[in-house]
């Protein structure tokens, strides 16, 4: 889950360029404003008319954060969560968190005493993300997502959160990765949906809207228990999961076709990350790619910028997956903030010990491609999203 770091970095750079002009709510979240109207901040869940499949309406916040509504407890307490494909734990701020922990105080908090279905667990947890930590204790309650009520779901009541979580609109994170990745060592919400027979198929799918086309952030959909063919065109290209903890697969190679420039020549691994805004890769490769696209390094940082007047004429970038080219146009891989155009291709200098360099395909990629996560067949599918 890299969203916070990536989003804040891009927005901070843009703010630095136009200091005093750009006011990014992602930095200074006002809870009273953010949550003043549930009818606008939360999309009411839509339950499919036939049993075993449901859709969650997801809000797109400035193309850097996608979140949707859930409820916990009886009666249900409403929260917004990021449905994160690179983690497997679920946590929400606790009403018992200290007044001094500002990330907790700036979000809605779970009140266990207000729920008839709450059950005490008490096991402590500490979740480590690339961008920060969350510490607290475990509880158990009914969790409802788009009309599907999961009984006795274990989740974390967060007591302490790193300051980086001040920047998120969502209250918490709901992991959609494999349960083997769980730092709490508990089944995920989706796995419990399967075991409790709430969904008919071990498949979930993301359709992410573009903020440029839906100013209110509406239009994104998470489908639980299957796919929605009305949201993509053509056939799905499937590729096998190569490491059943993350949603990881193999890319054959990456290229700029009209320049005959190729990257990842011997194949490379990639992870699909719904909690990240950028496309992250080994810095040597991303720097070369941005340079070939005629980008400029921004003030000796790892970010690259482009002349906005050139964007419509810039080259496509193709990811060859299972022999099929998945094409990103310049309009899809450029992030425009005010009068500045940033590259979504971001370089990472180091990787975990023992791990080969890999790519992370965040929501920039997922907006362009409807993405299917098939746990039953350990595979991921891609098809061009309809916009």
UniProtKB/TrEMBL annotation:
PROSITE patterns xref list: ASP_PROTEASE, PEPTIDASE_A1
Keyword Transport among record annotations: no
Short name of one Pfam family: Asp
Keywords for this protein: Aspartyl protease, Disulfide bond, Hydrolase, Protease, Signal
Chain ranges of the Peptidase A1 domain: 66-383
Claim: Signal is one of the keywords in the record: yes
Origin superkingdom: Eukaryota
Similarity section: Belongs to the peptidase A1 family.
Protein name: Cathepsin d
Species this chain originates from: Plakobranchus ocellatus
């Amino acid at each position: 889950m890299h969203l916070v770091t990536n989003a804040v970095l891009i927005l901070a750079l843009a703010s630095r360029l136009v200091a005093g002009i750009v006011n990014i709510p992602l930095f200074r979240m006002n809870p009273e404003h953010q949550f003043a109207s549930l009818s606008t901040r939360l999309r009411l869940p839509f339950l499919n008319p036939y049993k075993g499949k449901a859709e969650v309406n997801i809000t797109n916040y400035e193309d850097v954060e996608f979140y949707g509504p859930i409820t916990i407890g009886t009666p249900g307490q409403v929260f917004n969560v990021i449905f994160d494909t690179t983690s497997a734990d679920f946590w929400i701020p606790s009403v018992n968190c200290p007044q001094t922990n500002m990330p907790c105080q700036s979000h809605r908090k779970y009140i266990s005493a207000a729920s008839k279905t709450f059950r005490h667990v008490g096991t402590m947890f500490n979740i480590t993300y690339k961008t920060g930590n969350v510490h607290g204790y475990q509880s158990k309650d009914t969790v409802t997502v788009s009309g599907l009520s999961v009984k006795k779901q274990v989740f974390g009541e967060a007591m302490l959160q790193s300051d980086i979580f001040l920047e998120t609109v969502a209250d918490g994170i709901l992991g959609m990765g494999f349960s083997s990745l769980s730092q709490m060592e508990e089944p995920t919400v989706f796995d419990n949906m399967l075991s409790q027979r709430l969904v008919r198929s071990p498949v979930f799918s993301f359709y992410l809207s573009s903020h440029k086309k839906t100013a209110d952030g509406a239009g994104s959909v998470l489908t639980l228990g299957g796919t929605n063919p009305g949201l993509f065109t053509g056939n799905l290209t499937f590729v096998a999961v190569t490491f059943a903890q993350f949603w990881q697969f193999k890319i054959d190679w990456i290229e700029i076709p009209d320049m005959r420039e190729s990257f990842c020549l011997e194949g490379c691994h990639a992870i699909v990350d719904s909690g990240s805004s950028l496309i992250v890769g080994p810095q040597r490769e991303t720097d070369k790619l941005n340079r070939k696209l005629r980008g400029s390094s921004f003030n000796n940082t790892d970010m690259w910028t482009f002349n906005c007047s050139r964007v419509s004429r810039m080259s496509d970038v193709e990811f060859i997956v299972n022999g099929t080219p998945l094409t990103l146009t310049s309009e899809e891989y450029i992030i425009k903030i005010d009068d500045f155009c940033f590259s979504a291709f971001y370089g990472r200098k180091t990787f975990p010990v023992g791990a080969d360099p890999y790519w992370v395909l965040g929501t920039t990629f997922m907006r362009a491609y409807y993405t299917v996560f098939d746990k039953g067949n350990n595979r991921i599918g891609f098809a061009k999203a309809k916009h």
